[in-house]
Write a structure and sequence with these properties.
The structure holds two protein chains of two kinds. Chain A is built from nine helices and 26 strands. In chain A, the strands form five sheets. Chain A has a six-stranded antiparallel β-barrel with strand order 2-3-4-7-6-5. Chain A has a six-stranded antiparallel barrel with strand order 8-9-10-13-12-11. In chain A, strands 15, 16, 17, 18, 19 and 20 form a six-stranded antiparallel β-sheet that branches. Chain A has three domains: 197 residues, Beta Barrel (Thrombin, subunit H); 79 residues, PDZ domain (Pdz3 Domain, Roll); 87 residues, PDZ domain (Pdz3 Domain, Roll), CATH 2.30.42.10. Chain A is elongated and about 80 Å long. Chain B is α+β, with helices and mostly antiparallel strands. Chain B has two domains: 232 residues, Thrombin, subunit H, CATH 2.40.10; 125 residues, Roll (Pdz3 Domain), CATH 2.30.42.10. Chain B has nine helices and 24 strands. The longest helix of chain B has 12 residues. Classes of the chains: A alpha+beta, B alpha+beta. Strand 1 of chain A pairs parallel with strand 1 of chain B, so a sheet runs across the interface.
């Protein structure tokens, strides 16, 4: 009888044909059929995902997670031709990979140019091309989905300054192009939001901007199959921290001999823009700095007093380093970190930290722990988040200051 | 709580069909009237409930073997006509490759129907065309819905279906997809991939275990032009389980489908391919002497042949070492030798060769799909 409960009568509601007014259809004001025809041959089937040829010499872009762990790259173009490709360079953090399709006789390949992703506006129509659920592998026909740009300058995991689209993206779209109505690539589709462990479209798709691709291309192209690292401005600390909202970013301190010092930064400088993109707050700055490869020379627009200056700084990859602080194991109910010892010659010693100091604030953030797990997470952060050139403000409680606190700055130097 | 039975299988709520004749024929999706699977808790036999955010892979591999898939047969179909009257219907015919079923009302309605004339309105989709899907939202009083989209791919499933990015829910299944002129492009198939849900038949490291879900923007639609071509057969009560025409019985190895190699990913039991000795992992090099560089070329050549044709395939199979070939047969196992010995009559002579080549010639007699 259980079966009966699971097997209800099927109800089918029959329709007669409806006349659908043309205005109810996807409101396409350009030649979408022509656009699809133009875009298709430059699309690339690769592994379980997608890619796009962006230069006639066979240079193609995809996501790093599409090619990760592979050595051989059989690719097939949207026009059905199959080739082998070579890996030129990867950025696992930014999720980009650049490959070269080797074409016999150097025959030029159909390609789509990289567009200007800074010119993309919310509401622009965009076309995504991909291989969702690998439906197109056997019949060699990619999937086209149409949507709009839902947001720009978005941060999603390790993607920063990315484009959000409601063009339907699914597993297999990864690495495929997000194309404007004029046939330019403005993004590389790479992530989606999902629910219930069902990895399928939710209307939130994230594409790496063409600007980021263009910034990385020269370095990835000449990386001989290796990785290129992300970079940031080393040697400066900022007053608004890295994440605060609606607070302008002010240089708090500059480490001597650092790239920030070499660029001419001084304490008190207010960051106005990076490479022409306005910096409203710390979060925006972190997002903007998330798209740069090592060695990029970024132009910082700063205000110093009444002056407005342009400073050019070479961005460098973070180098992890030791602080020289040895923390005591948490005892009893005290979860705040207590300095047990300070290594000789370390940044901690140079900053004047003493055994017995209790760290009550880290990078301007008051520390509060309600569990040992939280405390362990902080210990990890202290070990892994500190980089050469960092200036890390700490507030410590010291027994000889009668309950008062002392501010110290850890200046991390390479040793 | 998320009821995975609701999420993964066809819910009990109404879905859609299209009246196509005055004598009570209705086209709907095969999914709407097909057998499906529910998940039961092994110990109690009750529907198993699952919590949010449990990955589906984990649900299907429930520890303690507690989750039992169970076939759930559909027995009755009730049809609600546009005038609100309810009628009983039977499944008259199914077409597997299209993904549609033809229903017939058990007794003709008293009021005349206003059927859709497929011959007059069936049209072919073109990549990039604007389309709209007509379906139902079934909460409370059913209401008709319209979901716009584009043709994402004009041909899927060997041309029996096309693909659209219009968002499909269960209420769309069996409903029409039309173009801007109101022409019928097709009938919505399943909004979800039932095979994926049950774990695909082919094992890892095949494609990731993906599940095409409602609203994925990947919607497959039975093409109206292909439907029109088989409608007469369906009305005569003839069902099509497989792609009609010649039948070999092999699956592509999709994980290797991008290269030039045509790699067999699976061989159906008892199929012509199995009888000819094709095996999973074989690479098909030539078809009747013509070199193959893509699975599509292979499947197109088979589709162009006729049932009963003998086809010569050259395949490459990595063998562990040299093998004996006697009278054109590979003698690799004791079973091969026994079968060969059995085929001999006293006085027979034969020639044997010791072969170390990975390349073999195989002859297959194509069957007929039904």
């Amino acid at each position: 009888m259980k079966t009966a409960r699971h097997a209800p009568a099927r109800i089918v509601i029959a329709l007669v044909m409806l006349v659908v007014p043309a205005s109810s259809m996807a409101d396409v004001t350009f030649d979408l059929v022509g656009l699809c025809v133009k875009v298709r041959p430059a699309y690339v089937f690769i592994a379980g995902g997608s890619g796009v040829v962006i230069r006639p010499d066979g240079l193609m872009v995809t996501n790093d997670h599409v090619i990760e762990g592979r050595r051989r790259f059989d690719v097939r173009l949207g026009d059905g031709r199959s080739f082998e490709a070579r890996l030129l360079g990867r950025d696992p953090v930014g999720d980009l990979a650049v490959l070269k399709i080797d074409v016999p006789g150097d025959e030029p390949l159909p390609h789509l140019p990289l567009g200007d992703s800074d010119a993309v506006r919310v509401g622009d129509e965009v076309l995504a091309v991909g291989n969702p659920f690998a439906l197109g592998v056997i019949d060699q026909s990619p999937t086209f989905t149409l949507g709009i740009v839902s947001a720009v300058g978005h941060t999603q995991g390790t993607y920063t300054e990315c484009i959000v689209t409601d063009a339907e993206l699914n597993p297999g779209n990864s690495g495929g192009p997000l194309v404007t109505t004029s046939g330019e690539v403005v993004g590389i589709n790479g992530q989606i939001s999902t629910r219930y462990g069902l990895r399928s479209n939710t209307g939130l798709g994230f594409a790496i901007s063409a600007k980021q691709v263009a910034l990385w291309l020269p370095r990835l192209e000449s990386a001989s199959g290796g990785e290129v690292k992300h970079a940031k401005l080393a040697g400066a600390s900022f007053s608004s921290g890295d994440r605060s909202l609606s607070e302008s970013v002010v240089v708090k301190d500059v480490a001597e001999g650092s790239p920030a010092a070499a660029a001419g930064f001084r304490a008190g400088d207010v960051i106005l823009a990076i490479d022409g993109a306005p910096v409203a707050d710390g979060r925006r700055m972190a997002s903007l700095l998330g798209i740069y490869p090592e060695g990029h020379a970024a132009t910082f627009q700063v205000r110093r007093g009444v002056e407005s200056l342009s400073l050019e700084a070479v961005l460098t990859p973070p180098q992890r380093c030791r602080t020289g602080i040895d923390l005591a194991r948490p005892r009893g109910g005290e979860l705040l970190p207590v300095v047990e010892g300070v290594e000789a010659g370390s940044s901690a010693e140079a900053a004047g930290l003493l055994a017995g100091d209790v760290i009550v604030a880290f990078r301007g953030e008051r520390l509060e722990f309600s569990s040992r797990d939280q405390r362990r997470a902080f210990d990890r952060r202290l070990r892994t988040s500190i980089e050469v050139g960092d200036i890390v403000p700490l507030t410590v409680r010291r027994s000889d200051t009668a309950g008062g606190t002392t501010e110290v700055d850890l200046r991390l130097v390479a040793r | 709580m998320l009821d995975v039975n609701q999420l993964l299988r066809r819910p009990a709520a109404p879905s859609t069909g299209v009246v196509i004749s005055n004598d009570g024929f209705i086209i709907t999706s095969a999914f709407n009237v097909g057998d499906d699977t529910v998940f039961l808790t092994g110990s109690t036999g009750q529907l198993r409930r699952f919590s949010d955010h449990e990955p589906i892979e984990k649900l299907l591999a429930d520890p303690e073997g507690g989750v039992q898939p169970k076939a759930n047969a559909i027995r009755r179909v009730r049809v609600v006509l546009p005038d609100g009257t309810r009628h009983d219907a039977v499944v008259h015919a199914r077409h597997g490759p299209l993904g549609v079923a033809l229903l017939k009302l058990t007794s003709p309605p008293s009021t005349p129907l206003s059927p859709l004339d497929l011959d007059a309105v069936a049209s072919s989709p073109q990549l990039g065309d604007s389309v709209a899907a007509v379906g139902l939202v079934a909460a409370g009083q059913p209401a008709i819905t319209l979901n716009p989209g584009i043709v994402s791919a004009a041909s899927r499933s060997r041309g029996y279906q096309f693909q659209t990015d219009a968002l499909f829910n269960y209420g769309n299944s069996g409903g029409p997809v039309v173009d801007a002129a109101g022409n019928l492009l097709g009938i919505v198939t399943a909004p979800i991939e039932p095979d994926t849900v049950l774990g695909r038949i082919f094992p890892p490291p095949q494609l990731m275990r993906w599940s095409r879900a409602p609203n994925s923007g990947v919607g497959l639609v039975a093409r109206a032009d292909r439907l029109r071509a088989v409608l007469e057969d369906l009305r005569a009560g003839k069902s099509f389980e497989r792609f009609p025409g010649p039948y070999l019985g092999v699956l592509a190895d999709e994980s290797r489908a991008l290269g030039d190699d045509v790699v067999i990913g699976g061989v159906a039991q008892g199929s012509p391919a199995a009888k000819a000795g094709l095996r999973k992992g074989d690479i098909v090099l030539t078809y009747d002497g013509v070199e193959l560089t893509a699975w599509r070329e292979f499947s197109e050549r088979i589709a162009a042949a006729s049932p009963g044709d003998t086809v010569a395939l050259t395949i490459r199979r990595r063998s562990s070492g040299p093998r004996l070939v006697i009278a054109g047969r590979d003698i690799e196992t004791k079973a091969d030798l026994d079968a060969f010995t059995k085929s001999l009559s006293p006085g027979d002579t034969f020639e044997g060769r010791y072969v170390s080549d990975d390349v073999r010639e195989i002859e297959v007699v194509l069957g007929e799909a039904r």
